[in-house]
Amino acid sequence: MIRNRSYVNNISSRKSMFKKKNIFEYKDISKIFVAEAYNKLAENYEDTVVSRSLFYSEHYRAIAKFLLRNVIRRLKRGSLVADLGCGTGFWSILIKKLGFEVIGLDISLRSIEKAYEKGLESFVGDIEKISLRNESFDLVIALASVINHIDSHDQFFKNVSRILKKNGYLVFDFDSAWSIDNLYEALIYKNSVHNILKRFLDFSILQRGYKILWEFGNIYIRLYTPIEIIKELRARGFEIIKIQPIHILSSIIPVRIQEKTEDNITRDIIRSLHKLDDYINRLFPIPYPLPVSYIVLARKI
Asked: How far apart are alpha carbons 275 and 273 in whole angstroms?
């Protein structure tokens, strides 16, 4: 068992925690919707999201490769990792198998129950108000677009800096407001076309992101621009080590098609484009401006 409870603030007993209807503890209605969405997805998350969808399976594969190539070698075995937005424990399991100790935090009670059933040390909590001890962690991860579910990325980075040790690492990915596919979603699918077009005309879309409806979970998510992410990381005392795009050429096929298509020819084309994305990232490792998402490695200085 992990060096656990001394690293967690204000956590009640596991038994009483599982009895709470945690969604009603949040005053922000958007957090209630997020918790409810992931309570439903938790039942078959790996099968429904990670395995069945070509888009998400590639997204998870790209993140896993990034972790193995760029992050794990920087840590000693036994290092303590905080998995923020841990869900049912997909990334916690990987990190644990690689020889690290992990504490997970998620807003969804059902997801945490699932993670705990897998033997993971995990707690219900809000990642904008992280109930973990100061300067305790060697690595913080927030993977699979966790940050897109919050509005106050500045508060998130502030709290991450608080719980990280000096020279500790942060790894997270985010869906980009500059993505052609995300702009397409914003303009055609239950979003404010007027607001998006206005942002285009005054060029503010280059500086600050916007919200779109994420159909898969039926909740609104906040898209961020690389500029606002980089600016806030630096303001919170982070050194940016690497930014890598995810879904470069593959984004020419709309994500909603990649998520749902059962056509074998279309699936083969999508797989080929994913392989090209990986090749491009290895051959020309630069932060291209228009991918669907980015993954970021930063160090607290």
From this structure: 5
**Separation CA 162–CA 284 (nearest Å):** 34
**Cα(205)–Cα(227) distance, integer angstroms:** 10
CA distance 80 to 96: 10
What is the DSSP code string of 105-118?
Answer: EES-HHHHHHHHHT
* pLDDT tens track for 93-121: 999 999 999 999 999 999 999 999 999 99
Look at 108-122, 145-159, 174-188 and tell me which has the smallest mean pLDDT.
174-188
User: pTM of the entire structure?
Assistant: 0.87
Q: Terminal CA-to-CA distance of the chain, rounded, Å?
A: 30
Neighbouring C-beta atoms of residue 289, cutoff 10 Å: 10
Number of H helices and E strands in the chain, helices first, is: 12, 9
Single-letter amino acid code for the residue at 236: R
Provide the CATH number for the domain formed by 5-300 in this structure. Answer: 3.40.50.150
Residues pairing with 105 in the sheet: 84, 123
Q: How many CB atoms lie within 10 A of CB 2?
A: 14
Label residues 28-39 b or e (16+ Cβ within 10 Å = b): eebbbbbbbbbb
**Residue 187, both tokens:** 């303009």
Which amino acid is it at 60?
A: Y
Domain ranges of the chain: 5-300
Contact (Cβ atoms closer than 8 angstroms) between residue 232 and residue 157: yes
Residue 116 carries which side chain, given as an amino acid letter? Answer: Y
Token pair 């937005």 is at which residue? 85
Q: How far is CA 153 from CA 174, 228, 231, 232, in A?
A: 11, 9, 11, 8
For residue 104, list its beta bridge partners.
Answer: 83, 122
Phi, psi of 202 (to 5 degrees): -100, 5
Side chain identity, residue 288: Y
Residue 243 dihedral angles phi and psi, to the nearest 5°: -125, 120
